[in-house]
Amino acid sequence: MSEAAVMPRGNAVAVVAAADANGTARPDGRNRRAAETRRKIIEAAKAMITETSTAPTVVAVARRADVSVRSVFQHFGDVESLFVTVMDAIRQDIVVPPPTLNTRPLADRVDSVVQGLAEVFDKIVPLRVAAGQFVGHPALIERGQAFKLELRESTFEAFAPEFANLGEQAREELADAIGAALSLDAWIVLRRRDNLSFERAAAVWRMTLTALLAHRFASVAAE
Predict the structure, then answer these.
(1) For the whole prediction, is pTM greater than 0.85?
(2) 216 Cβ partners below 8 Å, 6+ apart?
Protein backbone atom coordinates (compact mmCIF):
# COMPACT_ATOMS: atom_id res chain seq x y z
CA MET A 1 0.00 0.00 0.00
CA SER A 2 1.35 3.46 -0.91
CA GLU A 3 2.03 6.24 1.59
CA ALA A 4 -0.70 8.34 -0.06
CA ALA A 5 -3.20 5.59 0.58
CA VAL A 6 -2.58 5.45 4.33
CA MET A 7 -1.90 9.16 4.82
CA PRO A 8 -4.48 11.14 6.86
CA ARG A 9 -6.65 13.08 4.43
CA GLY A 10 -5.52 16.67 3.96
CA ASN A 11 -2.06 16.13 5.49
CA ALA A 12 -0.13 15.15 2.38
CA VAL A 13 1.48 18.55 1.84
CA ALA A 14 2.91 18.64 5.35
CA VAL A 15 4.32 15.12 5.02
CA VAL A 16 6.04 15.89 1.72
CA ALA A 17 7.54 19.07 3.16
CA ALA A 18 8.80 17.19 6.21
CA ALA A 19 10.47 14.59 4.01
CA ASP A 20 12.38 17.27 2.14
CA ALA A 21 13.41 18.89 5.42
CA ASN A 22 14.85 15.56 6.61
CA GLY A 23 17.37 15.52 3.82
CA THR A 24 15.56 13.52 1.16
CA ALA A 25 15.59 16.37 -1.36
CA ARG A 26 16.07 15.48 -5.01
CA PRO A 27 19.03 16.58 -7.14
CA ASP A 28 18.73 20.08 -8.60
CA GLY A 29 17.41 18.99 -12.00
CA ARG A 30 14.71 16.82 -10.52
CA ASN A 31 13.87 19.55 -8.01
CA ARG A 32 13.31 22.04 -10.81
CA ARG A 33 11.10 19.63 -12.73
CA ALA A 34 9.14 18.79 -9.60
CA ALA A 35 8.70 22.47 -8.77
CA GLU A 36 7.47 23.18 -12.30
CA THR A 37 5.02 20.28 -12.16
CA ARG A 38 3.74 21.48 -8.81
CA ARG A 39 3.33 25.03 -10.17
CA LYS A 40 1.38 23.76 -13.19
CA ILE A 41 -0.94 21.71 -10.98
CA ILE A 42 -1.66 24.67 -8.68
CA GLU A 43 -2.22 27.09 -11.57
CA ALA A 44 -4.55 24.62 -13.30
CA ALA A 45 -6.60 24.12 -10.13
CA LYS A 46 -6.76 27.90 -9.49
CA ALA A 47 -8.04 28.53 -13.01
CA MET A 48 -10.68 25.81 -12.75
CA ILE A 49 -11.95 27.05 -9.38
CA THR A 50 -12.18 30.61 -10.73
CA GLU A 51 -14.08 29.42 -13.78
CA THR A 52 -16.49 26.98 -12.12
CA SER A 53 -16.65 27.80 -8.37
CA THR A 54 -16.25 24.09 -7.67
CA ALA A 55 -13.33 22.02 -6.42
CA PRO A 56 -11.97 20.19 -9.46
CA THR A 57 -11.22 16.48 -9.43
CA VAL A 58 -7.66 15.24 -9.52
CA VAL A 59 -8.25 13.80 -12.98
CA ALA A 60 -9.52 17.14 -14.30
CA VAL A 61 -6.59 19.04 -12.77
CA ALA A 62 -4.10 16.57 -14.25
CA ARG A 63 -5.67 16.97 -17.69
CA ARG A 64 -5.67 20.78 -17.43
CA ALA A 65 -2.07 20.88 -16.19
CA ASP A 66 -0.95 18.34 -18.79
CA VAL A 67 0.54 16.05 -16.16
CA SER A 68 -0.27 12.54 -15.03
CA VAL A 69 -2.77 11.79 -12.29
CA ARG A 70 0.07 10.04 -10.48
CA SER A 71 2.03 13.30 -10.45
CA VAL A 72 -0.83 15.10 -8.74
CA PHE A 73 -1.02 12.46 -6.03
CA GLN A 74 2.77 12.48 -5.63
CA HIS A 75 2.71 16.21 -4.87
CA PHE A 76 -0.49 16.46 -2.84
CA GLY A 77 -1.67 13.01 -1.79
CA ASP A 78 -5.36 13.91 -1.86
CA VAL A 79 -7.72 16.54 -3.26
CA GLU A 80 -8.16 18.25 0.11
CA SER A 81 -4.43 19.00 0.37
CA LEU A 82 -4.46 20.32 -3.18
CA PHE A 83 -7.42 22.57 -2.40
CA VAL A 84 -5.82 24.00 0.76
CA THR A 85 -2.62 24.76 -1.15
CA VAL A 86 -4.58 26.43 -3.96
CA MET A 87 -6.56 28.46 -1.43
CA ASP A 88 -3.33 29.75 0.10
CA ALA A 89 -1.98 30.58 -3.37
CA ILE A 90 -5.11 32.55 -4.28
CA ARG A 91 -4.97 34.47 -1.00
CA GLN A 92 -1.33 35.38 -1.70
CA ASP A 93 -2.30 36.71 -5.12
CA ILE A 94 -4.85 39.12 -3.65
CA VAL A 95 -3.61 42.63 -2.95
CA VAL A 96 -5.27 43.73 0.29
CA PRO A 97 -5.96 47.49 0.39
CA PRO A 98 -3.92 49.45 2.97
CA PRO A 99 -5.59 50.11 6.34
CA THR A 100 -8.10 52.95 6.36
CA LEU A 101 -6.71 55.95 8.25
CA ASN A 102 -8.95 56.55 11.24
CA THR A 103 -8.25 60.30 11.04
CA ARG A 104 -10.33 60.64 7.88
CA PRO A 105 -14.02 61.69 8.01
CA LEU A 106 -16.38 58.88 8.97
CA ALA A 107 -18.13 58.81 5.58
CA ASP A 108 -14.79 58.43 3.83
CA ARG A 109 -13.83 55.58 6.12
CA VAL A 110 -17.12 53.82 5.51
CA ASP A 111 -16.57 54.08 1.75
CA SER A 112 -12.98 52.88 2.03
CA VAL A 113 -13.78 49.90 4.25
CA VAL A 114 -16.67 48.77 2.07
CA GLN A 115 -14.75 49.20 -1.19
CA GLY A 116 -11.74 47.30 0.14
CA LEU A 117 -13.79 44.42 1.51
CA ALA A 118 -15.95 44.19 -1.61
CA GLU A 119 -12.94 44.06 -3.94
CA VAL A 120 -11.24 41.33 -1.90
CA PHE A 121 -14.40 39.28 -1.42
CA ASP A 122 -15.35 39.49 -5.08
CA LYS A 123 -12.07 37.79 -5.97
CA ILE A 124 -12.48 34.94 -3.51
CA VAL A 125 -16.18 34.19 -3.96
CA PRO A 126 -15.46 31.25 -6.32
CA LEU A 127 -12.98 29.85 -3.80
CA ARG A 128 -15.44 30.19 -0.92
CA VAL A 129 -18.23 28.52 -2.89
CA ALA A 130 -15.91 25.69 -3.87
CA ALA A 131 -14.77 25.30 -0.25
CA GLY A 132 -18.32 24.30 0.63
CA GLN A 133 -17.41 20.85 -0.64
CA PHE A 134 -14.94 20.48 2.23
CA VAL A 135 -17.04 21.68 5.15
CA GLY A 136 -15.34 20.79 8.42
CA HIS A 137 -11.81 20.49 7.03
CA PRO A 138 -9.50 21.62 9.89
CA ALA A 139 -7.15 23.64 7.66
CA LEU A 140 -10.03 25.53 6.06
CA ILE A 141 -11.64 26.23 9.43
CA GLU A 142 -8.33 27.53 10.79
CA ARG A 143 -7.79 29.86 7.83
CA GLY A 144 -11.36 31.08 7.93
CA GLN A 145 -11.14 31.95 11.61
CA ALA A 146 -7.83 33.75 11.10
CA PHE A 147 -9.35 35.76 8.24
CA LYS A 148 -12.36 36.77 10.34
CA LEU A 149 -10.09 37.88 13.18
CA GLU A 150 -8.02 39.92 10.73
CA LEU A 151 -11.15 41.67 9.45
CA ARG A 152 -12.38 42.29 13.00
CA GLU A 153 -9.10 43.96 13.94
CA SER A 154 -9.31 46.10 10.79
CA THR A 155 -12.79 47.23 11.85
CA PHE A 156 -11.54 48.30 15.27
CA GLU A 157 -8.67 50.18 13.62
CA ALA A 158 -10.76 51.94 10.97
CA PHE A 159 -13.35 53.15 13.47
CA ALA A 160 -11.08 53.60 16.48
CA PRO A 161 -12.33 57.12 17.33
CA GLU A 162 -15.94 55.93 17.38
CA PHE A 163 -15.21 52.71 19.28
CA ALA A 164 -13.28 54.70 21.88
CA ASN A 165 -16.58 56.23 23.05
CA LEU A 166 -18.16 52.83 23.69
CA GLY A 167 -17.96 50.48 26.64
CA GLU A 168 -16.36 47.07 26.18
CA GLN A 169 -19.64 45.21 25.65
CA ALA A 170 -20.93 47.81 23.21
CA ARG A 171 -17.67 47.65 21.23
CA GLU A 172 -17.83 43.87 20.98
CA GLU A 173 -21.51 43.90 19.98
CA LEU A 174 -20.93 46.50 17.27
CA ALA A 175 -17.92 44.59 15.93
CA ASP A 176 -20.01 41.40 15.87
CA ALA A 177 -22.79 43.17 13.98
CA ILE A 178 -20.39 44.64 11.41
CA GLY A 179 -18.66 41.28 11.01
CA ALA A 180 -21.95 39.51 10.33
CA ALA A 181 -23.35 42.16 7.98
CA LEU A 182 -20.14 42.59 5.99
CA SER A 183 -19.06 38.96 5.88
CA LEU A 184 -17.97 36.92 2.90
CA ASP A 185 -21.14 34.85 3.13
CA ALA A 186 -23.23 38.04 3.09
CA TRP A 187 -21.36 39.22 -0.01
CA ILE A 188 -22.05 35.88 -1.71
CA VAL A 189 -25.77 36.32 -1.01
CA LEU A 190 -25.79 39.75 -2.63
CA ARG A 191 -23.67 38.79 -5.63
CA ARG A 192 -24.76 35.21 -6.29
CA ARG A 193 -28.24 34.75 -4.83
CA ASP A 194 -29.61 38.25 -5.42
CA ASN A 195 -27.50 38.76 -8.56
CA LEU A 196 -26.62 42.37 -7.70
CA SER A 197 -23.92 44.21 -9.59
CA PHE A 198 -20.69 44.99 -7.74
CA GLU A 199 -21.67 48.67 -7.47
CA ARG A 200 -25.16 47.97 -6.14
CA ALA A 201 -23.94 45.37 -3.64
CA ALA A 202 -21.31 47.81 -2.38
CA ALA A 203 -24.00 50.50 -2.04
CA VAL A 204 -26.06 48.10 0.11
CA TRP A 205 -23.06 47.55 2.34
CA ARG A 206 -22.37 51.28 2.68
CA MET A 207 -25.97 51.83 3.81
CA THR A 208 -25.77 48.89 6.20
CA LEU A 209 -22.48 49.94 7.78
CA THR A 210 -23.61 53.56 8.10
CA ALA A 211 -26.86 52.47 9.75
CA LEU A 212 -25.09 50.14 12.20
CA LEU A 213 -22.69 52.85 13.29
CA ALA A 214 -25.42 55.48 13.58
CA HIS A 215 -27.70 53.17 15.58
CA ARG A 216 -25.03 52.22 18.08
CA PHE A 217 -23.82 55.76 18.62
CA ALA A 218 -27.38 57.08 18.92
CA SER A 219 -28.11 54.43 21.56
CA VAL A 220 -25.03 55.45 23.54
CA ALA A 221 -25.96 59.15 23.33
CA ALA A 222 -29.44 58.36 24.65
CA GLU A 223 -28.14 56.49 27.69
Answers:
(1) no
(2) 166, 170, 173, 174, 177
CA–CA distances in Å: residue 34 to residues 3, 16, 26, 85:
18, 12, 9, 16
- pLDDT tens-digit readout, 171-223: 999 999 999 999 999 999 999 999 999 999 999 999 999 999 998 766 655 55
Task: Annotate 139-155 with DSSP letters as a single string.
Answer: HHHHHHHHHHHHHHHHH
98's torsion region: left (phi>0), alpha (psi -120 to 50) or beta?
beta
Instruction: Show me where the domains of the chain are located.
Output: 3-91, 98-222
Q: Phi then psi for 196, rounded to 5 degrees?
A: -80, 150
Q: What is the largest CA-CA distance in the chain?
A: 71
Give the span between the Cα atoms of 89 and 43, in whole angstroms. Answer: 9
Give Rg (Cα) of the chain: 22
Rounded to whole angstroms, the Cα distance separating 148 from 86 reads 19
